[in-house]
Backbone:
């Protein structure tokens, strides 16, 4: 069965610190997609990244980077030099590609507090 | 449009009343999804559509929830005889559907409708 585990419920850091948000997933499929979304205090959901199961290359986008490790079923998200505006709840999500399996399963989210 | 548009932003209903939420997907997106988020916790998948056809309804409560996506109309999610536990933010998302290697495109989310049952 599909499952996404974000073990860190809340993380608090001081501005400019680096922070890593963990995500571990479970799936029986060989073809799947992983996502990270950001939900700021205003409530909307912001898409950050999609990674497919065939591509284990790590990705960097500005201060954000993602580490995809199929061997450990993890898709961790690192924010470098965190800023107050990074304060939000971050959701890791999994979507399988098999027919009929387009729904996305979300983790419980990690609430990040970045203090000035 | 360029964004998923959900209306209303906030809906207040007394227990037992009906609630109807609307979602206009991004133009050209053929898949629409509804999710329920209770108290900023994880999202619960409710139902998905491929154009006007139900694609996956495994998350829909059987009795009081229904949803439609009709041609040339916003999609809708309706809750009959609402209960206190239905209080949540309901998110709609749309996607283009199948992408490379048979996988799916990221889902673009609307800003949600906050449903408050009193």
Residues:
């Amino acid at each position: 069965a599909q499952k996404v585990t974000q073990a860190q419920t809340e993380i608090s850091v001081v501005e400019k610190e680096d922070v890593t948000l963990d995500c571990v997933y479970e799936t029986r499929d060989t073809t799947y997609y992983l996502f990270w979304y950001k939900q700021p205090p205003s409530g909307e959901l912001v898409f950050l990244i999609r990674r497919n199961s065939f591509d284990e290359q790590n990705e960097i986008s500005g201060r954000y980077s993602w580490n995809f490790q199929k061997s450990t079923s993890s898709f961790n998200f690192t924010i470098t030099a965190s800023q107050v505006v990074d304060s939000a709840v971050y959701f890791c999500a999994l979507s399988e590609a098999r027919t009929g399996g387009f729904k996305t399963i979300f983790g419980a989210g990690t609430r990040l507090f970045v203090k000035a | 449009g360029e964004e998923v548009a959900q209306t209303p932003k906030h809906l207040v209903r007394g227990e037992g009343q009906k609630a109807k939420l609307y979602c206009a997907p991004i133009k050209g997106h053929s898949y629409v999804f509804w999710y329920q988020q209770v108290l900023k916790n994880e999202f619960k998948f409710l139902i998905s559509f491929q154009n006007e056809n139900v694609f996956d309804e495994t998350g829909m409560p059987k009795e009081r929830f229904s949803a439609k996506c009709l041609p040339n109309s916003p999609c809708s999610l309706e809750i009959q005889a609402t209960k206190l536990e239905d209080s949540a933010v309901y998110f709609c998302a749309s996607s283009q559907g199948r992408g490379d290697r048979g996988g799916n495109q990221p889902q673009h989310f609307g800003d949600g409708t906050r449903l408050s049952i009193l």
Notes: The radius of gyration of chain B is 14 Å. Residues 25 and 45 of chain B are 17 Å apart (CA to CA). The first strand of chain B starts at residue 5 and ends at 7. Chain B has no helices and eleven strands.
